[in-house]
Amino acid sequence: MHDLRFNIPGQDLNLEPFALRAPDFQKKCEVMITDRGYKCRITNIVPLSGQERLFLLRIVDPLERELFNFRPGQFLMLEVPGYGEAPISISSSSSNHEFIEVCIRRAGHVTSALFEARQGAIVSIRGPFGTTFPMEQMKGRNVLMVAGGLGIAPMRAPLFWIGNHRDWYKDVRLLYGAREPSQLIFNYQFEEWQKVGNVTLHTIVEKPDDAWQGRVGMITELFDGFTFDPEETWAIVCGPPVMFKFVCNYLDGKGIPMNRMFVSLERRMHCGMGKCCRCMVGSTFTCLDGPVFDYWSVMNLKEAI
Amino acid sequence: MIYKVISKPEFKSFIDAIVKANTAYGPKQVDTGCKGEPVYQFMPVHAADEIAFDYTATHSSAKHLFLPFRDELSKFSFTDGNWEQEVRYDAPPIVLIGLRPCDINAVNILDDVMLHGPYPSPYYLARRKNTFIIGMDHLPLPDCFCKSMNRHTVNHGFNLFCSDIGDRYYLSINSANAFSFLKEFKLEEPSYEDNCNLIERRKKIKHSFTTNIEVTGLPVFLDIEFNSPIWEKWGDKCLSCGTCAMVCPTCYCYSVEERFDIDLKGSTRQNHLYSCNLVDFAQVAGGHNFRPKNGDRLKYRYYHHYRGFAANDNQQICVGCNRCGRACLADINPKDVINDLRLERESCMTCVSTSPDKT
């Protein structure tokens, strides 16, 4: 009898060590196997508004904590074991290795499960994934940041970055609009950003309540209050897709080149690694080529906004 | 690649030996269709006699052996207030017998998609490395259009490829494993006549295609036709059932889901093959759907297959097997959709060229 049993041993698949290697953002083609998540303890939960909470996560393993490096604009896949994963943008300072802050709105299956979690619960994170805001390229320029609603969450990472490197940038402005005054989250940090970070802050709401004394209207109305030099200004825009269109068109009309405006898109993501195709916009993966796109790329992506 | 010739009975005993010693999958008739035609599928086989070597095309592709419809990515076990995650990549070795050239091309495309880019899939890699592929050529069905997609021949991605040249098989041996297995069987060097027969066979296959789709310049066409009413027309026919993606040899989109074990002591993260035609494919938390209409989703599938997307490096990932056309409940056929698209544009071009010449 012929013995034709063959067995290609699994030793070829020696992929495990990659999982513990620090991600290198200079090399885009670095092989990383990221199916194993980092264990994270929820150390604190800060209620921000009725539907939004800020979760402070601390990676349990000290080595993994050291390895988890991210840049402003990136996101992570947050997993509640048993419930599933969701892509969440990181809203803490990239120089803070001790804690990762994520701002989460209760919207779906996973986030609802997370809202049930108490302090001390352990969740899993994978990542960081995606592209970053080009903070180095903005060096020596004015930065104009426009955030609408929950768009302030991904905006916090570049804000912290600017706070750490304030002398790199000239004039930094944050325009922040929301529907109601109660939805202006992180209002406890406004003073810190203005005084310590030297950021000029403009806020606006659509539906004021009795206590509101600031401006009322759409976010584009905030542009009337100041002038900027389009040659010297880079823009970061985060918010609902409708806002992108109006804000970016306005800035384009003012003369900021399209490749100096950056937006952060959101899509449904299932793998975060450019495989499942759930987050595809036209021919681009939001998880690999995004979530930060310059406006020129967004204009060229069909059905993007 | 080494070329040898083997007689048909000897080939059968080779297949028998390899099937008996390994977990093997081959084409088997599983049912009879509504017009009395046999329905074939890739099924586990235990002897060479079970394999239908002269099958036409299987209903589903061999994709699910590399990308199972339900695949376990990782396992969680819960202890009091804590959990442990276990990730396993191992895959048992399998033999895959009787793949058609278009199917092997489809596997090569999946290799490009799953193993390239910044995050190669270890699950796919494990399965791919542990699979021994024996390919066989065939005369095309009336609705096959792999020649139009230039996928009717294959020159890599298999371990052994057999061409039927009358009473013998012409073998292309593409791996050391395959060569060492075949050492125990009676092989001959191909004679001049055998070579002629092979070329004759290739020619015959090439000229047997009756369905042709013009795909030159299709990516540009698709870009121009992004807002064409044709998508709405075909979208109205589409039932959004996702059958096309389930039988397609190159559709790889998936969703990741987590389920608790029945004893609540653990959970598994699984990926399920999904279809971009299903309603909730691009729906985000909160309920917004980025592709709400049937036409949008149908269009997206055609763009993914024929325009070439980020991960597939501008190659068209359709191999022209027409499984989707055969399986579609609403009778939507890639041939008809693409010809429709072309016709509309070409009729428009005719009016441009017939305008009076001013010189």
Question: Explain this structure to me?
Answer:
The complex is a heterodimer of chains A (305) and B (359). Chain A is an alpha/beta fold and 305 residues long. Chain A has 2 domains: 15-129, Elongation Factor Tu (Ef-tu), domain 3 (Beta Barrel); 142-300, Nucleotide-binding domain of ferredoxin-NADP reductase (FNR) module (Rossmann fold). Helices cover 17% and strands 27% of the residues of chain A. The longest helix of chain A has 14 residues, at 241-254. Residues 1-32 of chain A have low confidence and may be disordered. In chain B, a hairpin with a 5-residue loop joins β2 (23-32) and β3. Chain B is globular, with a radius of gyration of 23 Å. The chains are: A alpha/beta (305), B alpha/beta (359). The interface between A and B is large, with 59 and 65 residues.
Outline type of chain B: globular
What best-fitting shape of chain A do the alpha-carbon axes yield? globular
Radius of gyration of chain B: 23 Å
Sheet with most strands of chain A: 7 strands, mixed
Number of strands of chain A: 15
CA-to-CA gap between the ends of chain A? 65 Å
Range of strand content of chain A: 25-35%
Widest beta sheet: strand line-up of chain B: 1-9-8-7-6-2-3
Mean pLDDT of chain B: 85
What name goes with the CATH superfamily of the largest domain in chain A?
Answer: Nucleotide-binding domain of ferredoxin-NADP reductase (FNR) module
Assembly of the depicted chains? heterodimer
Overall number of structural domains of chain A: 2
Into how many domains do the coordinates of chain B divide?
Answer: 2
Strand-and-helix sequence of chain B, N→C?
A: EHEEEEEHHEEEHHHHHEEHHH
The ordered H/E elements of chain A are EEHEEEHEEHEHEEEHEEEEH
Q: What proportion of the residues of chain B form beta strands (DSSP E)?
A: 15-25%
Arithmetic mean of pLDDT of chain A: 83
Look at the helices and sheets of chain A and give the structural class: alpha/beta
How many individual helices of chain A?
6
CATH architecture of the largest domain in chain A: 3-Layer(aba) Sandwich
Helix content of chain B: 25-40%
